[in-house]
Automatic annotation (TrEMBL):
Native organism: Massilia aquatica
Record-given protein name: DUF3473 domain-containing protein
Pfam families given in the database record: DUF3473, Polysacc_deac_1
SUPFAM superfamilies: Glycoside hydrolase/deacetylase
Gene3D superfamilies according to UniProt: Glycoside hydrolase/deacetylase
Boundaries of every NodB homology domain copy: 32-285
CDD domains: CE4_PuuE_HpPgdA_like_2
Length: 285
């Protein structure tokens, strides 16, 4: 949506609602069957996030796992009561690229129905776990459209060892024309011919805050586009349990600068204008 003259660009603040033991990088060492018996910390972390957003006057989009929503329905209702958008992260944090078309359709329909029943509002958006929609499974965007979703934020146009579609457009686009699903990629900034990850996650914790702020401001000023920023509740939780057996690279990526994350999110709420995905890209009220 075009912004009023003189008004700052509204960027999209997004949270992927999952717990530390559901991270894809931990899948080789944490059995899915063990999830119900593990200490779940997502509810307390979401409360901290809601307080930060309320203090900063920020409304956000919460891409929420059905598995989490089923166990913490009151938490989901608090998200909605705070004026935030409820969107889907699938049911059980299965990568879209690891599912057949039929399995994926079942997963996204199940999570959509569950979230709508608990939250009492239409679920329009979806984000694939680990940004797992790319060149090999673009059919997933058609399945999302068929299931009643209006937009996806599942493509990260960078090269990464776990995800990425480097040749994808950098900004919102309709892969199958304006009557189809809108895809809103995670934000990248250009430095010469190189795309830099500017949309949050582990990069935001690893890089100096000033660099992340510079990249997002560059997207706003030079490209005239909103930035899409994402993070997870467990990223504000340095006291989370630390499972044994993870590789050195996985441990570094997961735990680096967790203790600084809350302060950085508070800075973001002051340094940029933010809103929900549906309001920015679909024009909802």
């Amino acid at each position: 949506m075009p912004r009023a003259l003189g008004q700052p660009i509204r960027n999209a603040m997004t949270i992927d609602v999952e717990d530390y033991f559901q991270v894809s990088a931990f899948a080789p060492i944490i059995a899915r069957e063990s999830w119900p018996s593990r200490e779940c910390r997502v509810e307390a972390n979401i409360e901290r996030i809601l307080a930060i957003l309320e203090s900063g006057g920020v409304h956000a989009t919460f891409f929420t796992l059905g598995w989490i929503a089923e166990r913490y329905p009151d938490m989901v209702r608090r998200i909605v009561a705070g004026g935030h958008e409820l969107a889907s992260h699938g049911y059980g944090h299965l990568r879209a690229s690891d599912q057949t078309r039929a399995e994926f359709a079942d997963d996204i329909k199940r999570s959509k129905a569950l979230l709508e029943d608990i939250g009492g509002q239409a679920v329009l958006g979806y984000r694939a776990p680990s940004f797992s929609i790319g060149t090999s499974n673009l059919w997933a965007l058609d399945v999302l459209h068929e299931a009643g979703y209006r937009y996806s934020s599942s493509i990260y146009p960078i090269a990464h060892d776990h995800y990425g579609m480097p040749d994808a457009p950098r900004f919102a686009f309709y892969p199958n024309g304006p009557d189809g699903l809108l895809e809103v990629p995670i934000t990248t900034a250009m430095l010469g011919q190189r795309k830099l990850p500017a949309g949050g996650g582990g990069y935001f914790r690893l890089l100096p805050y000033s660099l992340s702020r510079w990249m997002m401001r560059r997207v706003n000023s030079d490209d005239g586009q909103p930035a899409i920023f994402y993070f997870h509740p467990w990223e504000l939780d340095p006291g989370q349990p630390r499972p044994e057996g993870a590789s050195l690279k996985t441990r570094f990526r997961h735990y680096v600068n967790l203790q600084r994350m809350e302060g950085r999110i508070k800075l973001l709420t002051r340094d940029f204008a933010w809103d929900r995905m549906d309001r920015i890209f679909l024009g909802t009220k």
